[in-house]
Amino acid sequence: MEETVVKAIQDEYPDDFAWCYGCGRLNVAGHHFRTGWQGEQTVSIYSPDPEHLALPGFVYGGLVASFIDCHGTGSASLFLHRKNGHEPGDGAEPPRFVTASLNVNFLKPTPHGVPLKAVGTIQEIHPKKYKVEIEVFANDAVCALGEVIAVVMPSTFTKKE
Amino acid sequence: MEETVVKAIQDEYPDDFAWCYGCGRLNVAGHHFRTGWQGEQTVSIYSPDPEHLALPGFVYGGLVASFIDCHGTGSASLFLHRKNGHEPGDGAEPPRFVTASLNVNFLKPTPHGVPLKAVGTIQEIHPKKYKVEIEVFANDAVCALGEVIAVVMPSTFTKKE
After folding, report:
1. Domain count, chain A
2. Which residue intervals define the domain Thioesterase in the entry (chains A, B) (predicted)?
3. Which tens digit of pLDDT belongs to each residue from A1-18?
């Protein structure tokens, strides 16, 4: 049976912040990455589309980077939401994060045709800034390691320059 | 007049290596990033699709990371191809690279609706390993800084595990 994320933080983002190509539920053409708790860690699961290739048989690195990116911001949102006394599904609006930096180490070619699983471990750097260390698994093997520095969305994102 | 890359290294990749979702000319659904020389630097230009949003008005960070990723491998290929005495368009088959690591610092929100331009500076670390420092511009402002470590494609990518 395929694993799924039942309660995802992205299901709770306010509509105005639910347009992300990676993880926005309102972006019809997007990937719809979804991130939830698994104990003290976070998890996202995604099956790449047929066109998400590096070469036939292997997943495109940019897709892996995108998966890590949204898993990072989603994990930070889950963490701060819990710190504020909330869990996905309790009706409270979660904080929305953006990525300050994204690092990906590609350890081995990522096989195409199986679900990818991102597992995140979160550390608070500052009340508005979190570091998320991420392992991306395919067939139970770690194919990529990621690190995302996520910060609470600044006002520059809500007023156009 | 919009800038374009006339002679791109991706136009020269062998057919078997032209399926990348980011930069493969044979991947119908992909981004078709194209990378060429501009003096001693490299350049790619890309206009994000309407759905490539972080929020309305701003480009998705994973798309910026993907752009940096393929610009990095394309730049390394251009560099080694020139070192071997070749330029895109001369009929020689260029070397194909993969990404070992990808780092992106998002300096400011990237506006949506204008072409993005990646400019790369390449440094040889080893005959099969290159570092590419990349600036991503929108409206002449640097929105993101990237670093790609690109290595000549290993045999693990051409035989499925």
Report:
1. 1
2. 57-140
3. 568 998 999 999 999 999
* Cα maximum dimension of chain B: 47
CA distance linking residue B25 with residue A18, whole number of Å: 31
Host domain of residue A35: 9-158
Q: Does the distance separating the beta carbons of B66 and A66 come in below 8 Å?
A: yes
> What pTM did the predictor assign?
0.96
Backbone dihedral region for residue B5 (phi beyond 0: left; psi -120 to 50: alpha; all else: beta):
beta
ipTM score of complex: 0.96
Substitution target in B16, B21, B58 with the highest count of A β-carbons within 10 Å is: B21
Tokens of A93: 């609006």
Q: How many angstroms separate the CA atoms of A133 and A138, rounded? A: 17
B3 lies in some domain? no
- Residue A106's DSSP bridge partners are A144
CB crowding A42-81: b at 16 or more within 10 Å, else e: bbbbbebeeebbbbebbbbbbbbbbbbbbbbbbbbbbbbb
Q: pLDDT (tens digit, 9 = 90+) per residue, A79-94?
A: 999 999 999 999 999 9
Distance in angstroms (rounded) separating the CA atoms of residues A140 and B41: 40
- Sign of dihedral through CA atoms A55, A56, A57, A63? positive
Tally A–B CB contacts below 8 A: 141
According to DSSP, residue B59 is labeled B
Domain-embedded: residue B88:
yes
